[in-house]
Structures are given as C-alpha cells and as structure tokens.
Amino acid sequence: MTNDVVVAGAGPVGLFLACELALAGVRPVVLDRLPARSGEQKANGLVGQVVRLLDHRGLHQPLGGTPGAPQPIPRFAFAAFPLELHRLDANPLHALPVPQHRIEEVLEERARELGVTVRRGHELTGFTQDGTGVTVDLHGPDGAERLRTRYLVGADGGRSTVRKLAGIGFPGVTSTDPVSRVAHVLPPEGIRGTENGAYLLPGCPTPFHPYTHTRTDHGVFVLAPLGPDTVMIATMEWGGPPVDPQSPLTLDELRASIHRVTGADVELAPAATPGRYTPRRTVGHNTRLAERYRDGRVLLVGDAAHVHSATGGPGLNLGLQDAVNLGWKLAAEVRGWAPPGLLDSYQQERRPVGERVFMHSQAQTALMSPGPAVTALRALVGELLAHDDNLARIGALMAGSDVRHDTGCPHPLAGGFAPELDLGGSRLAELARTGRPLLLDLTGGGLGLADLAEPWKDRIDAVTAEPAGPAGPAGALLLRPDGYVAWACTPDRADREGLDRALRTWFGEPLG
Ligand SMILES: Cc1cc2nc3c(=O)[nH]c(=O)nc-3n(C[C@H](O)[C@H](O)[C@H](O)COP(=O)(O)OP(=O)(O)OC[C@H]3O[C@@H](n4cnc5c(N)ncnc54)[C@H](O)[C@@H]3O)c2cc1C
C-alpha cells in the first residue's frame, strides 16, 4: 500500500502538520523514534502570530487561552530592551504561556481525533525517492520495516535525519558563547520587590523586572516568579569559566554564575513543585537554516529546517506556521487539484521568514553581550525604540506579523495574515476552523461574488457576512487555509477578474 504522506517526527510541528493534512482530507502516518512523548522541558510558551493561528483552528482555548479572541500582550522584550507595546494603537504581539509538553499532548489528542496514525517507537533510518514516491526504511519494536509513500516530510528536529539523508545543507553559525543556565528554585532569601514591580537582589543595585532579560556589565539575568514557591532563574554569560558540557548543572554553579553576572550572592534551593525545570545548561547556540526546504518528494518543516537561540521564543511561531503553510499545499498536491508551483511556494514563502528569525536571533544575542561597544550600540537602539513606529516594527518582527506573501493583488490586506473581524455573532477566526479556503463577502452578499466561486465549491466555502460596526477594511476576502489573504477588494468594487485569477492561482482549475 502507498501512503499519501509520511511525517517523520511527532514533535509539535509534525503533529500539527498531520492535523492540517487530516483536515484537508489526507491521512498521514506520523513516525517517532521515541516510544512515548519525552516531556523534555523546552518551550515555556507560544509567542507571536502563531497564537492567532491556533485560534483559527479552535486550539487557543484548549491550550490555556481565555475564551474569545486572543488579546495582545502589553509588554515583551527584545534583546533585553523592554518593548512597551501597550503604547501602540495596533499592538501586534500575542503570547500564550503553555509548556511544550502540554502543546504536544493537545496536538496529539487532536491528531488522533482526526484519524491520524501516530506510530511511536518507529525511527526513520533511511529513504530513497523516485518519480512516483518515497520508500522509507524504519526501525521499530518488531525490527526493520519498509513503507511506501507519495511524500515524506522531515519534522524530525534540529538534527534531522531526513535533512541529512536528502543531502540538504544546513549552513549557519555555531558559537560557544553565551553559556545559558536555568533552574526552577525556591524564592531565594533576601530578594525584595520594589514599588514598580521589579526585584532587587541583595548587594546589587540593578532592578530586575520579572519575566524579562536584564543585561548587566557581565551578562544577562532573568527572574520569573512562577508561583508562591517557585521562581525561574536564568543567566547568560559570555567568556565565563570553562564548563564541561557533559556534566549536569548544579545549583552551586548557577549561584556562582548569578554572582558573576549580578554581583549578588543568593543561596539556591530546588523548587518543590512537580514539573519544575531541572537545572539545565546550554553552551552556545546553533543558528542554521536549511539551504532548501524541498528536495523532490521530500520536505522539511520546523526545527529540521531552522535552529536558532530560544530568546524571544520564535521556534514554535516559525515551525507551526511552516506546518500550516505546507499542510494545505501538500494536501492539494496529493488530492490532485494543486496548481503548478503551489508546493514550491512553501519554500518561497517560508524560507525568507526563517531568514528573518535567523537575523533577529543573532542580532539579539549580539545586543545582549557585554562590552562598552555593545553598551554604546544599545544606547542608540534604545533611542530608536522610544519611537512608536520603531517599536511597532520590532513588535511585528517578533510576532512574525510583518510577513507579506506576494499574491499579485494590490489590496493592502492581500498577502498578510487576515485581521480579526467581528462578524456580528461570530468571528473570522471561528469561520477558519475547518481549514478550508474561504471566500468571505463582507457586504452581506451585496458584491454578488459567491457565484464566481461556485465551480470550486468542492474545495472553497463561500460565506456571506456583515461586520458588526462600521464598514470593515474590505468588501470581500479570499482566505487561504493558513489564514493569509490571497485576494481582497474594496466594498464598492467587486474585482471579479482579480478574484477569478486568485482562485486559479491558489486553488487550481475548477472540476469540470
Ligand atoms: C530550552 C528550550 C527552550 C525553548 N523555548 C521556546 C519557547 O519558549 N518558545 C518557542 O516557541 N520555542 C522554544 N524552543 C524551541 C522549540 O522547543 C522548538 O522550536 C520545537 O521543539 C520544534 O519542534 P519540532 O516539532 O520541529 O521538533 P522537535 O520538537 O525536536 O521534534 C522532533 C521529533 O522528531 C523525532 N525524531 C527525530 N529523529 C527521528 C527519526 N529519525 N525518526 C523518527 N522520529 C524522529 C524526535 O523524537 C522528536 O519527537 C525552546 C527550545 C529549547 C531547547
């Protein structure tokens, strides 16, 4: 039997891709070499446009969000600069504090509900591809096995076997600095809260604002109260004493690092709460980007395609949006209606987004490093961030909401992620739950466009609505399954030719 798609890797990105494929009518098989979810402590939360994307799939609330539309966060940090995003009229940044193991649990439950087969304890060990498909070698509890599939997706993390076997280069930078240390501990004695919500460590004049990086002359310090009996403490150091990367981080080593970075000497004791972070040390960073995301019938998503520092939490914003961009395009290919070039547009659209994260991740690390030249550079960047247009630009960079795809449509909304719209009784995000393309007439049918999409009704839903309140930003929108606007028109002019072109460009020829 030939499978449609085999996804190697049941991390968050592989699982989300599988959900997207299943929503689009394709039944993927997901392999993971681990017999069970690892529960490894990685992401503490989701940051950026991915939060709105998950709302489009009805996953915002199950992941710990509040009912209704996700709300932007008033503050965030960029390279240890506070981003006072509440100053902006249009704040672009959303966040959802949820641990990665919970994200994986929710996505796996959903994948199974959608009929996805997840085969744990099965490691991809090799593959060969030809003109009609890919033969995948795996090793599982019953020994070696072979699967045939039309497409293979490597969602197998930063050390991706799929990427290596496909011969796809992974150029970039590996540095041995900074050394990052993090642990969950009991609130240390001697820490004092200040009136404006900051904390003072004994013997250190610098106030530390919680949950954010603070740069000192010797490194970076983070303190995040996680409950009455738990704080997360982290340091980053450049040029510190040599470490044995194989040895586990001890609280004494963390204490010495806090002393070097802040000047404060604080006694540390492990937090007693279940699920606490085991002390962890990371030596340096890998910042790397796959030279291509596709090799014939083999594609890469998530960390298999890009790795970078975790500062600002861009990993899942990037990886989960790769998955949603690829999902509908690959499904269209499998189901036979993909227009020429649609699958290649995955790399064309997503690799430049990876390049932007590569850039800001490196820039942030450089801007946090010690030294007088960096201090001077920070003074300059700090001045720039005092201006709201610069603040908005950096906020959008961190959110990934500055991504614009070339759709050929001149309307200002085209190519961007759809704005949230209150449609009087429902929200645009709620209409997107099915993952099907949407033609949304926002004039209550006044533009008479639904007939134009009729020949595509097997793959597109035409919906008529009227935004609550004053006239919306557009008269009609053609929305791709990944939430991006393929085409839009003003309320007074139904550009039927443009719509027809967009339908064919993105959704192929109608069935005869
Ligand atoms: C300490 C830390 C903190 C982080 N904090 C954040 C944060 O706050 N926010 C954020 O967005 N991101 C954060 N990240 C990044 C985030 O964890 C990653 O971007 C994310 O895990 C990538 O998901 P993925 O599914 O692409 O890959 P992975 O999570 O690496 O999953 C890959 C899966 O593939 C499986 N696999 C590997 N090889 C094979 C094979 N040959 N055959 C079958 N299966 C295989 C693995 O077992 C694994 O389950 C952090 C990372 C770290 C390390």
CATH class call of the largest domain: Alpha Beta
- Count of DSSP helices? 12
Strand % is 15-25%
| Model regions low in confidence, pLDDT < 50 over at least 5 residues | none
Number of domains: 3
Ligands bound to this protein structure: flavin-adenine dinucleotide
How would you summarize this macromolecular structure in one to three sentences?
Helices cover 28% and strands 24% of the residues. It is α+β, with helices and mostly antiparallel strands. The strands form 6 sheets. Strands 1, 2, 7, 8, 9, 10, 18 and 19 form an 8-stranded mixed β-sheet that branches. Strands 14-15-16-11-17-20 form a 6-stranded antiparallel β-sheet, with helices on both faces. It has a 4-stranded mixed β-sheet with strand order 22-21-23-24, covered by helices on one side.
Would you write up a description of this structure?
By secondary structure, this protein is α+β, with helices and mostly antiparallel strands. It folds into 3 domains: 2-66 and 95-170 and 290-366, FAD/NAD(P)-binding domain (3-Layer(bba) Sandwich); 176-285, 2-Layer Sandwich (Alpha-Beta Plaits), CATH 3.30.70; 428-507, Glutaredoxin. Helix content is 28%, strand content 24%. Strands 1, 2, 7, 8, 9, 10, 18 and 19 form an 8-stranded mixed β-sheet that branches. Helix 1 (12-23) links the parallel strand 1 and strand 2. Helix 1 (12-23) runs parallel beside helix 3 (100-113), helix 1 packs parallel to helix 6 and helix 6 (315-335) packs antiparallel against helix 7 (344-368). The radius of gyration is 24 Å and the shape is globular.
